[in-house]
Amino acid sequence: MKLARRRRTLVAWGFSLPFVIVFAIFMLIPLATSLVMSFTDITARDIQTPFNVNFMGLSNYFKLFRDPRYLHSLGTTGIFVVVGLPLTMVVALAFAVTLNKGLRHVNAFFRALFYAPVVASTVAVSVVWRYILQKDGLLNTLLAIIGVQGPDWLHDTRTALPALMVMTLWRNMGTLMIIFLAGLQAIPEEVLEAAEMDGASEWRKFRSITLPLLRPTLLLGAVLQSVLYLQFFEESFVMTQGGPLDSTLSASYYIYEKFGFGQYGMSSAASYVLFAIIALVSLLQFRILKSED
Amino acid sequence: MSTAAVTMSPEISENKPSLWTRFRKAHGITYVVLSLVGIIWVFPFFWMVLGSLKTQREIMAVPPTLLPKNPTLGNFTQWFTQLHFGNYFINSLVVAVVTMLGNLVFCSMVGYALAKIDFAGKNVLFLLVMVTLMVPSVATFIPLFVIISNLHMLNSYFALILPFLTQPIGVFLMRQFMQSIPDALLEAGRIDGAGELRIFFQIVLPQCKPPLATLAVLTFLSSWNNFLWPLVAAQSNKMYTLPVALSLYSTGQNATNYSVLLAGAVLVVTPILLLFVFLQKYFIQGVTMSGIK
């Protein structure tokens, strides 16, 4: 019996070994090293001698939280998530509810249509949207037709971040729509029919039956997408380079900038803070999810 | 019952529902609205294609023209002749294909061990994989950069591929699916004297086409669109992937050269959109399977 188990263990690790080796070198070790680096003064000059650096305790973290630009980048990321994500969810839910009834084949077509932006490279669509949003671009030309003079969206501190949010909504909505559609299809038809018999209106049915039953799905969607929203980077990189006046400087962008300056210790500290936030958010949301079932 | 049905039917045929009622029954209004929204939704893609066909002079026109007056493929030729498109395309393709194949092999092997073999260390391994599901690449890229540069692999295919060969989501997908394969099937193979590898390749893998297809699409897509790591690890023209090349071109001195930029965006987005049209099912499954845990 014992021998059989030992043999099984050997076989199983044989199957796992290729994965485990690559996974350890390129995932687990970097993840741990990142934390260690955040406690040191490592810079780009130490790259050949990464062990020859000074231990600094928490000083990188103190420096970080005294840097108004870093706090600002966290704030920007926060606004992006807190405003952008619920908006995306509302739009996705509206699409999902609409596409959940009617003709199946036509709905499949529209589902694909609304999902298409998700598969496109963020860099490529950012280029397109930058072109649409420029001062004399498509959007302002259309606005001019109805007599509105649009701002220079991406060069105005008031409109740059909202513009990025709208683009992100457009690009990411499809994922949530698919998840919500799956959730809607799991709602038993009898429940809705029973409510209909009782004379409940469409809105009433949605609020009192669909929405409560959809809660776990909504939460799941929120977790998955908040992880993405918290990391937003490419949009700023291509469309605004963090500007104007840092108004689209995200936490990821700050990390990338510090890395570019060669301040690896500081950069690692900033990346660990972001990682901790992401881990916390997903943990929190999974907790809520668990307590619901 | 039957008499009621008989007496009912002539009434219905007498009051043939009006065109309007039939339109409403078929969700006509919904589809009109959906079509309008759908046109707006994909318009950025049309605008991208239209712009890519305009001359550099026409693209500057205020207000912008809708259709190109003198459609030209010059912007595309520029990518092919002067901007090394072929080079970037091959880089993106090699990286995406190898990443995809690597994940298929590695993840299905671990997935098999975790799903079908009871062995020492199983729970620890599974926990480690699950914990890293949420780790963003921004949390590991700095030590990864140090490690890769000390392995003298920066600016090579190794640097672009290795860190993405072991996606935790793949292990999760494969394990989840393989758990549903009946043990009796494997036992039958063992009784026939098949070795562990043969059981895996000849009995288990052929059953796993759906999750393998989903994982293939998922890893190819994320590799093709991947940005932060290639931006850091590819340090010369020779190793740039498509998104990196496009983003650097779009933020450099050619930032306003939109006709060429849009042609670049078309070239990045088209292969994936084509894949999406043909393999839609697996794209959508990727969302629902990785979303619903």
TrEMBL record, chain B:
Boundaries of every ABC transmembrane type-1 domain copy: 89-279
This protein's UniProt keywords: Cell membrane, Membrane, Transmembrane, Transmembrane helix, Transport
Transmembrane segments: 29-50, 88-112, 124-148, 154-174, 258-279
Protein name as it appears in the record: Carbohydrate ABC transporter permease
SUPFAM superfamilies: MetI-like (SSF161098)
Pfam families referenced in this protein's UniProt entry, alphabetically: BPD_transp_1
Alphabetized InterPro entries for the sequence: MetI-like (IPR000515), MetI-like_sf (IPR035906)
Membrane topology term: Multi-pass membrane protein
